[in-house]
Every structure is written in structure tokens, then in C-alpha cells.
Design a protein that fits this description.
Blueprint (H helix, E strand, L loop, with lengths): L4 H12 L2 E4 H9 L3 H7 L2 H15 L5 E4 L8 H9 L4 E4 L2 H7 L7 H4 L4 H18 L3 E4 L5 H11 L1
Parallel strand pairs: 1-2, 3-4
Helix pairs in contact: 1-9, 2-4, 6-8
């Protein structure tokens, strides 16, 4: 949350001419509900199953940029896909940076239940950090970068 996956993905799509897919938007389209409501009417496990199905479907198409949800790395199967299919970038940002970037907590189901947004971000970061680092091909530290700077770095690396 707040790592700029979707923002950078859209900008990178315009820069490269590749299709852009946001997994959360794809899940919403398929489920007919926004992610926040999916979490309200389904369990998180059911959401994670939808997420895995969506990743499996999207990854089969060449020539696209996919912005995954932040929790995609919680699944062994998803981590395998991220490391073996395509090229995966981890847009790394410290919890304090993420906290500054996230404006609308209502769109973030995991944060809606939280009394302390920054502490929740720290906890999530610490729980997932190893998964993020081992599920990518390249880490880009975004703390001091703009989305445009991140796109430029990705284009250089590709």
C-alpha cells in the first residue's frame, strides 16, 4: 500500500506502450464488488484465492505490466510465479514513506481496521519484507523518488 505500484504501472505503460493491468481492479471487475466490499462479504482467504486466480490468468499474456496487490506475496504459488514469469520489480518504501503517501484509508481494507496506521504499516512491512525481496528480480528504493523517477529507473533497467 502506497508503494506506487499502480501509479508507476500506468506511467510505465504510457512510456513503453505495453498494456497495464491493476490486479485489484481486475478482481473488482470479476467479483462485481470493490476490494473493500469483497473484504466485508468474503474472508481474506477468499480474496487471496481470487487474487491467485487473477495472477494466474494475467501472467499468461505477454506484453503487459501488472500491478499486483501488496499481499500477493503471501502465497507460495504467487511468489513462484513472480520469480519465474516475466520480470518483477519491488518498489520498496519505508513504512513512514508509505504512511505519508496513503491518503484514503477507506480504500485500504487492511488499514480500515487499524487504530494506528503507521504501526500497522510497520507490522505489514516487517512480515512481508523477506517475501518482497525474494520474489523480485530487482529492488528499487522509492523513498526519495517521484513516480516519474521510478519509471525512468525501470526503463533504464529493461
Amino acid at each position: 500500500m502506497g508503494a506506487w505500484k499502480s501509479t508507476v504501472g500506468r506511467k510505465l505503460s504510457r512510456e513503453t506502450g505495453l498494456w497495464f493491468k491493476d490486479m485489484d481492479r481486475e478482481i473488482e471487475r470479476e467479483a462485481g464488488l470493490i476490494v473493500t466490499h469483497i473484504f466485508e462479504v468474503m474472508s481474506e482467504q477468499e480474496f487471496r484465492e481470487l487474487e491467485q486466480q487473477t495472477l494466474n490468468r494475467l501472467i499468461k499474456k505477454d506484453g503487459q505490466i501488472i500491478a499486483t496487490g501488496g499481499g500477493v506475496v503471501l502465497s507460495d504459488a504467487n511468489r513462484f510465479i513472480l520469480t519465474t514469469e516475466g520480470y518483477t520489480f519491488y518498489l520498496k518504501a519505508q513504512p513512514e514513506t508509505l504512511d505519508k503517501r496513503i491518503k484514503n484509508v477507506q480504500k485500504r481494507p487492511v488499514l480500515q481496521r487499524s487504530k494506528n496506521k503507521l504501526e500497522t504499516l510497520r507490522q505489514i512491512y516487517n512480515e512481508r519484507k523477506m517475501y518482497y525481496e525474494t520474489s523480485c528480480h530487482k529492488i528499487i528504493d522509492t523513498d526519495d523518488l517521484s513516480p516519474e523517477d521510478v519509471v525512468e529507473k525501470i526503463v533504464e533497467l529493461l
